[in-house]
């Protein structure tokens, strides 16, 4: 399903008035079965989903960003037509229009880092929910703005509740380190990592897996240790 109009004339295209609503509706229908609403008629689905989201007794109102796995910054045509399963953070980025690579740097220090935070929170909350998550949501008592207790005391827990990553039968999140794909020259990405040591540490300590895409996305190079591989994957 296209996210962008086929023409360059966004003012005249009806896409921006119709397509977002269609995207939301289709996404809602796709997720309905995972919420136990798969058999709800189309005319009633919006109301049921909204009611569920506002129901304080519902410990699993939605799955949020569960099962996130990748971050892609590349021209839209690289992923157009692919079913990424709702597991990917997408950024439309064209390196040829970024003369001074300031946008590339911004992507690396801002949205990529935020995506990593999200990914690691889900990762930790899945691999050891007692230690890195926050246990049973039903028993939560909020402490300030930085964590919860189980009941009226115990350890302060800052992670996600079990219900955010497990549906009572199976895990809803597959714990993977975030795979970051950026379509830009390896040398340009590496130069930014030298300027941004905090981001560099995140990558070199394997908290995220970084890949550079070159030759219109046909060649992919992985960052290993402190440099990109010489051979394309």
Task: Please describe what this structure looks like.
The protein contains seven helices and nine strands; from the N terminus they run ααββαααββββααβββ. It is α/β, with parallel strands linked by helices. It folds into two domains: 1-58; 64-233, no CATH class. The strands form two sheets. It has a six-stranded mixed sheet with strand order 2-1-6-7-8-9, covered by helices on one side. Strands 3-4-5 form a three-stranded antiparallel sheet. The longest helix has 18 residues, at 15-32. 22% of the residues are buried.
How many helical elements?
Answer: 7
- Strands of the largest sheet, in order across it? 2-1-6-7-8-9
- Find the structural class using helix and strand composition: alpha/beta
Number of domains: 2
Percent of residues in helices comes to 25-40%
Relevant terms:
three-stranded antiparallel sheet; alpha/beta; 233 residues; 19% strand; 7 helices; globular; 2 domains; six-stranded mixed sheet; 33% helix
What is the gist of this entry?
With 233 residues, the chain is α/β, with parallel strands linked by helices.
């Amino acid at each position: 399903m296209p996210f962008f109009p086929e023409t360059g004339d966004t003012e005249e295209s009806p896409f921006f008035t119709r397509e977002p609503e269609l995207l939301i509706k289709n996404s809602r229908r796709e997720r309905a079965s995972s919420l136990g609403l798969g058999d709800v008629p189309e005319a009633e689905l919006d109301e049921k989903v909204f009611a569920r989201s506002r129901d304080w007794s519902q410990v699993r109102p939605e799955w949020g960003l569960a099962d996130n796995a990748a971050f892609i910054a590349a021209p839209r045509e690289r992923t157009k037509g692919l079913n990424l399963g709702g597991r990917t953070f997408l950024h439309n980025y064209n390196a040829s229009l970024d003369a001074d690579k300031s946008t590339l740097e911004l992507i690396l220090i801002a949205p990529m880092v935020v995506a990593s935070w999200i990914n690691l929170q889900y990762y930790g909350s899945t691999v050891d929910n007692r230690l890195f998550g926050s246990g049973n949501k039903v028993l939560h008592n909020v402490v300030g703005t930085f964590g919860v207790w189980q009941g009226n005391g115990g350890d302060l827990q800052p992670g996600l509740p079990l219900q955010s990553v497990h549906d009572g039968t199976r895990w809803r999140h597959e714990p993977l380190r975030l795979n970051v794909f950026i379509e830009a020259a390896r040398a340009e990405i590496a130069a930014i990592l030298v300027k941004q040591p905090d981001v560099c540490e995140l990558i070199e300590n394997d908290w995220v897996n970084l890949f550079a895409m070159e030759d219109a996305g046909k060649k992919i190079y992985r960052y290993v240790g402190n440099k990109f591989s010489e051979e394309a994957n």
